[in-house]
Amino acid sequence: MKYWIITLTLLMAIPFTVCACSHETDEPEITAKPAPAPEPTPEPEPDPEPEGGKVLVAYFSCTNTTKSVAENIAGITDGNLFRIEPQQPYTSADLNYNTDCRANREQNDPSARPAIKGMPENPDEYQIVFIGYPIWWGKAPRVISTFLESGDFSGKTIIPFCTSHSSGLGSSDTDLHPLANDAAWKPGKRFGAGTTKPEIERWIKSLGIDFE
Ligand SMILES: Cc1cc2nc3c(=O)[nH]c(=O)nc-3n(C[C@H](O)[C@H](O)[C@H](O)COP(=O)(O)O)c2cc1C
Question: What residue owns the CA closest to ligand 1's atom 29?
Answer without folding.
Answer: 136
